[in-house]
Amino acid sequence: MFDRYEGGDYAILVHVDLPAEVDREDLSELQLLADSSGVKTMGVMTTSRNSPTPRYFVGSGKAEEIAEQVKLLDANIVIFNHALSPTQERNLEAICKCRVLDRTGLILDIFAQRARTHEGKLQVELAQLRHISTRLVRGWTHLERQKGGIGLRGPGETQLETDRRLIRGRIKNILKRLEKVQKQREQGRRARKKADIPTVSLVGYTNAGKSTLFNRLTEAGVYAADQLFATLDPTLRKLAVEDIGEVILADTVGFIRHLPHDLVAAFKATLQETQEADLLLHVVDVSDEQQQNNIDQVAEVLEEIDAGDVPQLIICNKIDQVEGAEPRIDYDDNQKPIRVWVSAQQGLGIEEVLEALRQILGPQMVELTLKIPHSMGKLRGTLYRWNSVTSEDVNENGELALQVRMSSVDWQRLHKAYGNQLDDLVVQ
């Protein structure tokens, strides 16, 4: 579709130090992103500016210097650690004679590589099309365009207009298909709510160790690697928690500072798992010097997807890389768990996570003895199926005496099914 230079495997990274906090990016993060995308970094160029220039983002002298380095190091792609305008991208490509990618384009490329499910692929394509639609400016300079005057008129629709129309049509088609997926997810969520199954969603900065923790808790075997955005497609698994029963645990895509809006919009259906969760396990890499900054960035994205008010439990991960750190649960003044210290890689603190979940999600427990006649064997079967029986005895009349312990929610469900008959079975 484009008269553009092809992307490549040998890259030069460009980082500009800008004074404004909102525009500042992390160079080490760009290098991790480049590694995650599979390109080989040939060189890193840094510069400082008070503000970006409209033409090249960097100054014209620095742009020529980048072009010289491309030629010298035989690189075939230049990656900027910033968001470039379509014009800046085209001007840089013209001077460097190779593909130029900005931070958003790089993240989109990684997402495209990681998508495995049909839904994930659709979401990535949607984000890419929205991004590309802004890059159609002067994308076809080598082709005929409409011109005024006799003998100079072009076809009825310019190539640029054709491209825009095709992209709009494709976006519309993808949105329809994603709407179907969203309805299916909504049905699943409604069924879980009806069954009173709590949902816990793992969130956190990319590469904080969410998938490793997910695998430790559920033995799911989800792909986990020491790279940015190893997980893209959401995974849901059941997790058994004492006194609560089954809990749905959701592993979600990692967040990153200045997460492209196109991605946030495209992954709305996926991120809804986070929005409608009963509890968020916010996984933090405590060995990272930028941990507080990362926590703030995650909080920012959670606000953006309307999940800022969902209760959170901080999971301080990678304690094996912090001297003197041990698995433990930190409590607030009301003795409610607020932090759990773990090493998902080493399997340390997993019991503490489960205990914290039990304390936070655990409803009021009901403990009593039920005298069950043989004619009510179905009730006995239900109690055993719910793992609510702690002991069982037979009295001299041949009646069963069951010691039961269950949540008040389960007791209400039982009461709804058996009514006052259940009260008559309770041993006072």
From TrEMBL:
Residues binding Mg(2+), per UniProt: 211, 231
Domain (Hflx-type G) ranges: 198-365
Gene Ontology terms, MF aspect: GTP binding; GTPase activity; guanosine tetraphosphate binding; metal ion binding; ribosome binding
PROSITE patterns, alphabetized: G_HFLX (PS51705)
Compartments (UniProt record): Cytoplasm
Signal peptide: none
Alphabetical list of InterPro entries matching this protein: EFG_III/V (IPR035647), G_HFLX_dom (IPR030394), GTP-bd (IPR006073), GTP-bd_M (IPR032305), GTPase_HflX (IPR016496), GTPase_HflX_N (IPR025121), GTPase_HflX_N_sf (IPR042108), HflX_C (IPR045498)
Cellular component GO terms, alphabetical: cytoplasm
Keyword Nucleotide-binding: yes
Keyword GTP-binding belongs to the record: yes
Binding-site residues, GTP: 204-211, 229-233, 251-254, 317-320, 343-345
Cofactor: Mg(2+)
Key words of the record: Cytoplasm, GTP-binding, Magnesium, Metal-binding, Nucleotide-binding
NCBIfam families, alphabetized: GTP_HflX (TIGR03156), PRK11058.1 (NF008280)
Subunit organization: Monomer. Associates with the 50S ribosomal subunit.
Function: GTPase that associates with the 50S ribosomal subunit and may have a role during protein synthesis or ribosome biogenesis.
Family: Belongs to the TRAFAC class OBG-HflX-like GTPase superfamily. HflX GTPase family.
Designated name of the protein: GTPase HflX
